[in-house]
Amino acid sequence: TVRADPNPPVRDAPADFPSLFQVVGGTGAPTGERLAATDPYIGACQCTIFRAPGTYTVSLTATDGIGEVASNATNVTVAPALTARFAASAMSGTAPLSIAFSAVAAGGYRAQATRTQWTFGDGTGAVGADVQHTFDAPGLYAATADLEDAGFGNASEAFLIDVTAPGSSAPVVTATIDPAVNVTAGSSVRFAAASSDPNATFRWTLSDGAGASSPGFLATLAPPPLSVGANLSVRLAVDFGSAGGSAAPVTADYNASTFFATESGGFRPQASDLGLLADGGPGSGAPPLTWIGAAVATGPGAPTARWQLPNGTETAGGSVAATFDAAGEYTVWALAADRWNDSAAIPFAVAVTAPIAPLTIRASLAPLVGVAPLPVTGRAAAAGGSGGPYTYRWSFG
């Protein structure tokens, strides 16, 4: 017997419905189950992920060990995707810094922007479509907006706020991550950073091994196993000195304990059935640096993985080897796409560091002979090592 949920709740697109059917009884081990729906994607992926709004009929046919067949069907309703526009009146400024935050929602199922939950990175929070907060002390703060609706949809964004001390002349750094919490697996996540220093360089590092050497990028992130949890840690490193400035580098961390959406029973909804697993390394080293990557794509239509190198060339297949001869910051991409217009992209940051020359010193002392008391002049010039400024110490036997 195939039991069907007669009244599945409405879910926002992309809608991944858990537990629509239950197969009970029969003789012997079941030999097969087959899904079908008025949405052809369901038959192709053998999943219950409906990616477009509408009302659909979906059925499951099961066969037991002696060839008996049973089937059942139900209807599902998919609401439009929930979208939201979150904004901050300022992303940086001198302490105390007052910022107005706002949220405007569209689509979804019974979505209300007034239910947006805000956290400000200083242990405080608020709820509402329009809220205001004052950051009293200098520092970097991760303010997050999180909106859920009645259709299991979610929209969110994180803002990196740079609050400076009065009179500070240090460059400021701001960033956003969209979405930032309760993200449906397989969704595209946009990372973007900026600085008041036009010569700043950026390096993103994610706890799942991905990263990029650029101010911004768009990535598709796969959740870790349930045993690991739903968290994701993000580190943004901004270097001013390497671009000719004198300010100290800045590092900002964003830690989301519920980055990936997880529903009751450990169910993690997916945006599509396209999967991309990739890894590569080493992440840094001196030239010539050989970087090796491997990727596997899964999903309907037998998608294949490919790689995109920093020079724009693409390599088909699941493996790649690239050699970097010059020092610099690079990004290598693992890519996948299927015939259902789904795509996935995972970046990897590669830092190629210039080799450190040996520390050398040239020195002279004059005159070397004379009548006491004898004044002498010493001159020294150092090179190599980790670079200047150098410290000199003279000793006179």
Q: What's the CATH superfamily of the largest domain, by name?
A: Immunoglobulins
General form: elongated
Estimate percent helicity: under 10%
Largest sheet: 8 strands, mixed
Straight-line N-to-C gap = 99 Å
By secondary-structure content and strand pairing, the structural class works out as mainly beta
The CATH architecture assignment of the largest domain turns out to be Sandwich
Mean pLDDT: 92
Please report which band the strand proportion falls in: under 5%, 5-15%, 15-25%, 25-35%, 35-45% or over 45%. over 45%
Number of helices: 1
Q: CATH top level of the largest domain?
A: Mainly Beta
- What are the segments in which pLDDT stays under 50 over at least 5 consecutive residues? none
CATH fold node name of the largest domain: Immunoglobulin-like
* Total number of strands: 33
Radius of gyration: 29 Å
The number of domains is 4
Account of the protein in words:
This protein has 397 residues and is mainly beta. It folds into four domains: 2-79, Immunoglobulin-like (Sandwich), CATH 2.60.40; 82-268, Immunoglobulins (Immunoglobulin-like), CATH 2.60.40; 272-355, Immunoglobulins (Immunoglobulin-like, Sandwich); 361-397, no CATH class. It contains one helix and 33 strands. The strands form nine sheets. Strands 10, 12, 13, 15, 16, 17, 18 and 21 form an eight-stranded mixed sheet that branches. The longest helix has 6 residues, at 40-45. The chain is elongated, with a radius of gyration of 29 Å.
